[in-house]
Specification:
The protein is α+β, with helices and mostly antiparallel strands. Strands 1-10-7-8 form a four-stranded antiparallel β-sheet. The chain has five helices and ten strands. Helix 1 packs across helix 4. It is globular, with a radius of gyration of 20 Å. Strand 4 and strand 5 form a beta hairpin.
């Protein structure tokens, strides 16, 4: 599967479908805090929903073209990408995981595939689809998946825990400093959350 996202019809409420854009793809990961929302009543999303372990590639613009990210476990419903992002997916979850990891390691090469004038550089699906990849035998592919996917899952778990702790810190510290909350009360709140 090799497809660009849609030109979304954005909505300002939190009821639409999450749309990932170029700003969401950094450091091999997806930053959902920079996403927006699409109104699926104005434009259908069938066949455009991304999946766990999909490879997302920024496909337009100088400075962002070629960035690659792996999609983590999606815990909040459907997610799509906008037209500046290409989704790459293998025939199975195992092959998608291998494909995404291969492309994560080839970001400079992918960036060099961009065509067009300064400021309007674009990565076409046809050029991306022509990239040669070494495909391991099924047994090796399965062994790679079994040994490496747990590392990504742990990273995503750690990222979620870190976000929760940051949120608690940002909530509790000002209240502790102002005297609005006492340490024993904060400890009780942490026990309830943890």
């Amino acid at each position: 599967y090799l497809s660009r996202g849609i030109s979304p019809k954005y909505c300002e409420n939190d009821e639409g479908v999450v749309v990932l854009n170029q700003k969401c793809i950094r450091g091999g990961a997806v930053d959902f805090s920079k996403s927006r929302r699409h109104d699926p009543a104005k434009k259908k999303i069938e066949g455009r929903v991304i999946s766990r372990l999909d490879c997302l590639i920024n496909s337009t613009g100088v400075g962002t073209l070629g960035r690659v990210a792996i999609v983590p476990e999606l815990a909040f419903g459907d997610v799509i990408v906008d037209s500046h992002v290409t989704v790459v997916r293998g025939g199975s979850e195992r092959s998608t995981f291998y494909l995404t990891n291969s492309l994560l390691n080839r970001q400079p090469e992918i960036e060099a595939l961009g065509e067009g004038s300064t400021g309007q550089t674009e990565l076409s699906r046809a050029v991306l689809g022509e990239m040669a990849l070494v495909v391991p035998p099924e047994g090796l592919l399965n062994a790679f998946y079994s040994s490496a996917v747990c590392l990504f899952e742990k990273r995503w778990s750690n990222d979620a825990e870190s976000a929760t702790l940051s949120s608690l810190r940002d909530t509790l510290v000002p209240r502790l400093i102002s005297g609005e909350l006492r340490v024993p009360d904060a400890e009780k709140m942490l026990e309830e959350v943890g």
